[in-house]
Amino acid sequence: MDIRRLLEQVKDNDLEVDQAMDQLKNLMYEDLGYANIDHHREIRNGYPEVIYCEGKSDEHILGIIEKMNKKGSNILGTRCRKETYNKVKEIYNHAEYEELSKILKIKNKDIVNLGKGKVLVITGGTSDIPVADEAYYTAKFLGNDVVRLYDVGVAGIHRLLNRLPIIQEARVIIVVAGMEGALPSVVGGLVDVPVIAVPTSVGYGANFGGLSALLTMLNSCASGISVVNIDNGFGAGYLASMINKLK
């Protein structure tokens, strides 16, 4: 909701006070019984609430989308099943879906690029792309210029070093890697900007579903590296966007 526009309408006598009150009554949050939609989040944090679709029924997801859509919000859903998207698409024909990352997008208003520079998403291998794409599409949807650099892991370090100009012009870098998770340390030693490390569950048995990569990243000897949880591409994309928009 555009509060400033609403107040200006009241000031100019284009909107009755009672009508404005009707629009404001669900400003803080809206109780649907199964969900409390935080409509106020965009005003507080700069971004609307994001729907984490995994574990939610299609009925609940559609109900949340309906209420957010009435507010004119841009809607982002993560971990969305293709079957759920197909149901959403029947109602909202402008909905979009990213197959690998399972990202659902509904754009109800223009996305303004407020980023101060480029966000770069790097992967160690091709198997890390679903998590990396979750970060990529999240940061892009939140209004950033985002670039991808995939499959440049430490097993062939020359692939990474050959792309140094792209790496060094980024303002924020997201590094997504599984296996032993060494790539963020290498990147962190090459740049003077924040690096967000994302461990993935990619790897053989002893990587313990991404725990080995997580521990490596947490114990990085390179400075300026923050770490999000295993497979949390969304969290990395969101954090990168917040950093990129700082003055």
Automatic annotation (TrEMBL):
Pfam families: AIRC. Coiled coil: none annotated. InterPro entries: P2CMN_synthase_LarB, PurE_dom. It comes from the Bacteria. Transmembrane segments: none annotated. One of its GO terms (biological process) is 'de novo' IMP biosynthetic process. One of its GO terms (molecular function) is hydrolase activity. Residues 117-246 form the PurE domain. Signal peptide: none annotated. NCBIfam families: LarB. This is PurE domain-containing protein. It comes from Romboutsia lituseburensis DSM 797. The lineage of its organism: Bacteria, Bacillati, Bacillota, Clostridia, Peptostreptococcales.
